[in-house]
Design a protein that fits this description.
The structure holds two protein chains of two kinds.
Chain A (H helix, E strand, L loop, with lengths): L2 H30 L3 H22 L4 H26 L3 H22 L9 H6 L19 H4 L5 H18 L1 H9 L1 H6 L4 H40 L5 H29 L8 H19 L8
Helix pairs in contact in A: 1-2, 1-7, 1-10, 1-11, 2-3, 2-4, 2-10, 3-4, 3-10, 7-10, 10-11, 10-12, 11-12
Chain B lengths: L2 H9 L5 H26 L5 H7 L1 H14 L7 H25 L4 H25 L10 H4 L7 H20 L1 H9 L1 H6 L4 H19 L8 H13 L5 H23 L7 H19 L5 H26 L6 H9 L11 H23 L21 H9 L9
Helix pairs in contact in B: 1-13, 2-8, 2-9, 2-11, 2-12, 2-13, 3-5, 3-6, 3-11, 4-5, 4-6, 5-6, 5-11, 8-11, 12-13, 12-14, 13-14, 15-16, 15-17
Classes of the chains: A mainly alpha, B mainly alpha.
């Protein structure tokens, strides 16, 4: 637990935890509003967004990519609404139609354009590269107080910290309104809560979380964290506040345990190489949900 | 040769034995997917197939590892497909189990299963990559599908399996239609709804498994959803919708595979999906029943009819008309002159409108319960709804016959 840990594992671990929490927080409300799959749809359309951003700017820098992905998420949500209204089809089918089409367009664009010089491919988009987000400039725990070393932190870390903080703040400030409009939209409207605006804001927040986390950890973790920790938390309690707290706990445990198992698990089993941390984090989240389904106190349907 | 020549060549199955087989296989796969997808779409469970398709990945990897452990090649396609079918079956049953046994809704179960199985699959993929035999495994092609460099034996396997699947959809069409259309009635006639639903999902599962190599597991769900949604624009009848979805799916699969065969940078899966989406877009815009364009045209025609009617009534009452559209409609039909004075035809039409209005108001006050008269929309002439004798009776009792002279 010395210098090597700080240099190689501390930042990926923190980034994994922050991504998990950033996605799990809005995931609670999506789950209760039966919009759990919005996260799935958004994380698929992030790919065309970043490809278009790359084609426009010609570079793989963070902000254009984030903007492109955010724009793609908004386009996707509008398209889903349009298909739902025009075709009068169920939301699931509209979602499936839109996100597969946009994802296909993203893959095609990627194949058509010359991205051999930059690190941009479908697998990266899916799996992320959590393991590579190491802190070169760190020499030990002391580096945490060294401004020069701190300047060399992977940029994903401060970005995710800001996004997580912003999401937490949003939920804390609008907690009452969100809770009312989630559980009883009609009542919320009568007491003057702008439910549609709030629903839209929640989707935008989801997109921001997805995009920020996606850049660091790939879309698997994003989808898994939107659904699994809130779902497991839902089986633990009937109170919204406690559910959110449980989901944050589950998200953190998934991220830490998943990262550790991916990095050290194979070594313990005698293999030389580590396995995908993103995949392992998703798997651990799934195991937690599975245990919750079998044993959590509030697992069964009531009424 | 231009790309178009290549396209024609592939389309007419002259681009080589393999690409012909792939195109036929993709067409059959699309047709089967369209059929199976319609039933799932009508049961409002389209996205379960997304969970099913993502949960194929661990099965593919485990099958590869098992075959390598047994001393085999690991890339034998039927073995990989069997593995993927088993793990996606586990995924499907997990979704059902979570949705039935816990308080979580089905969409949460779908999201959880698809992300966790996919994550597990990625873990296994990295395990395979670290094995010395795994470096050229090429299992990544299952993510997005790839028909380039496909072995002839693989193409034959896919084409035959897709054909069998299409036959299976045909055989099961009756109970599936019944349940999709009216589950309560189906249950009353002795059809086991849950088993039929599972059979529909089983068909989707087979589509996914066979489509892995062609379309890839991320996009194969599009083959199940898009043709069904497209078909919905053209008909309100289940049997026709299934037929149309089969046609749309087959066309998308066949055309997409043909287009993709023309150049290396045109990956099969995305091209097939985008072809299907093009069909959806055309239908959404131009379908005569529910298309955007026809709806807009209908609305415009209705608007003009209302303006014409109200304009004519204004002429009868001698009121001035200010509305631009009303003036335009009347002028175009030759009912008023450029200075706004009614023409001979205009006066006749106005009188007729006034008479109809008077008949309607009389009839509506006297026969309020008559179901025929519920069709009152201010536009339909009463003559179209009542017999000539009834009209004569109404006219006899009009307070003062106006405008007829």
């Amino acid at each position: 637990m010395g210098a090597e840990f700080v240099q190689l594992s501390l930042t990926p671990l923190l980034i994994g935890v922050l991504s998990a929490v950033a996605c799990a927080l809005p995931g609670n409300f999506l789950l209760l509003r039966r919009q759990a799959l919005i996260g799935d749809a958004i994380s698929h359309v992030v790919l065309p967004g970043i490809v278009v951003a790359f084609l426009v700017t010609g570079t793989v820098t963070a902000w254009p990519m984030m903007l492109g992905a955010g724009a793609a998420a908004i386009v996707a949500v509008l398209m889903i609404e349009a298909v739902k209204r025009l075709g009068r089809v169920e939301p699931g089918a509209a979602m499936g139609l839109v996100f597969t089409t946009l994802f296909a367009a993203g893959v095609l664009l990627l194949e058509q354009s010359d991205t051999s010089a930059v690190h941009l491919d479908v697998e990266h988009a899916l799996n992320g590269n959590l393991e590579s987000l190491i802190w070169f400039d760190a020499t030990g725990w002391g580096s945490l107080l060294d401004p020069q070393a701190l300047a060399g932190l992977p940029p994903q870390l401060p970005r995710l910290a800001i996004v997580t903080l912003a999401i937490g703040l949003f939920l804390a400030l609008l907690w009452k309104e969100l809770a009312i409009s989630t559980f009883d939209a009609a009542f919320a409207r009568t007491v003057g809560v702008p439910t549609r605006l709030l629903g839209g804001a929640l989707v935008v927040l989801t997109a921001i979380a997805a995009v920020a986390a996606f850049d660091a950890v790939g879309s698997i973790i994003v989808i898994a964290m939107f659904v699994c920790p809130p779902a497991a938390a839902r089986l633990m309690t009937d109170r919204l506040g406690r559910q959110v707290a449980w989901s944050v706990l589950f998200a953190i445990v998934s991220a830490v345990l998943g990262y550790v198992l991916a990095g050290y698990g194979p070594v313990w089993l005698g293999a030389a190489n580590s396995v995908s941390a993103a995949g392992m984090i998703a798997t651990v989240a799934g195991v937690i949900l599975w245990i919750a389904c079998l044993a959590a106190p509030r697992r069964s349907r009531t009424g | 040769m231009t790309p178009f020549d290549h396209f024609l060549e592939a389309l007419t199955l002259q681009g080589g034995y393999n690409s012909a087989l792939v195109a036929i296989g993709a067409g059959l796969l699309g047709a089967a997917a369209g059929g199976a997808g319609t039933f799932i779409f009508l049961r409002r469970r389209a996205l379960i197939s997304d969970a099913v398709s993502h949960s194929t990945l661990p099965g593919v990897c485990l099958a590869f590892l098992a075959m390598v452990a047994l001393g085999g090649d690991g890339r034998w396609l039927p073995g990989l497909l069997l593995g993927s079918a088993l793990s996606s079956l586990v995924g499907l049953l997990m979704v059902e189990w979570i949705a039935r046994r816990t308080r979580l809704s089905e969409d949460a179960a779908i999201g959880a299963v698809l992300s966790v199985f996919f994550g597990l699959g990625i873990v296994l993929l990295t395990v395979i990559q670290t094995l010395s035999t795994g470096r050229q495994a090429g299992l990544q092609t299952f993510l997005l599908g790839s028909t380039a460099g496909m072995l002839t034996s693989e193409a034959v396997t896919i084409a035959v399996a897709a054909a069998l699947l299409a036959v299976l959809v045909f055989v099961l069409r009756r109970p599936l239609t019944l349940v999709a259309f009216d589950p309560d009635f189906a249950a009353a006639t002795g059809v086991n709804v849950r088993h039929t639903d599972l059979a529909a999902m089983g068909l989707a599962l087979l589509v996914t498994v066979i489509g892995l190599k062609v379309v890839g597991l991320i996009l194969v769900v599009a083959l199940l959803i898009i043709p069904a949604v497209t078909a919905r624009f053209w008909t309100d009848q289940v049997s026709r919708m299934v037929l149309l979805a089969v046609l749309f799916g087959g066309a998308a699969g066949y055309l997409g595979a043909a287009v993709s065969a023309t150049a290396a940078a045109l990956p099969t899966g995305p091209i097939i999906v985008l072809t299907a989406f093009a069909g959806f877009l055309v239908s959404a815009l131009f379908s005569p029943v529910r298309g955007v364009v026809s709806a807009a045209l209908r609305r415009r025609r209705f608007q003009r009819q209302v303006h014409r009617r109200q304009g004519l009534l204004a002429l009868v009452r001698g009121e001035p008309i200010y509305d631009g559209l009303t003036l335009q409609v009347l002028r175009r039909d030759g009912l008023i002159r450029r200075d706004g004075v009614a023409t001979l035809e205009g006066r006749a039409a106005a009188a007729k409108a006034a008479l109809d209005e008077a008949r309607w108001s009389l009839v509506r006050s006297e026969r309020a319960d008559d179901p025929v008269l519920e069709r009152y929309d201010g536009l339909t002439p009463l003559e179209d709804l009542l017999t000539a004798d009834e009209i004569a009776e109404v006219d006899r009792r009009l307070p003062s016959p106006e405008g007829v002279a």
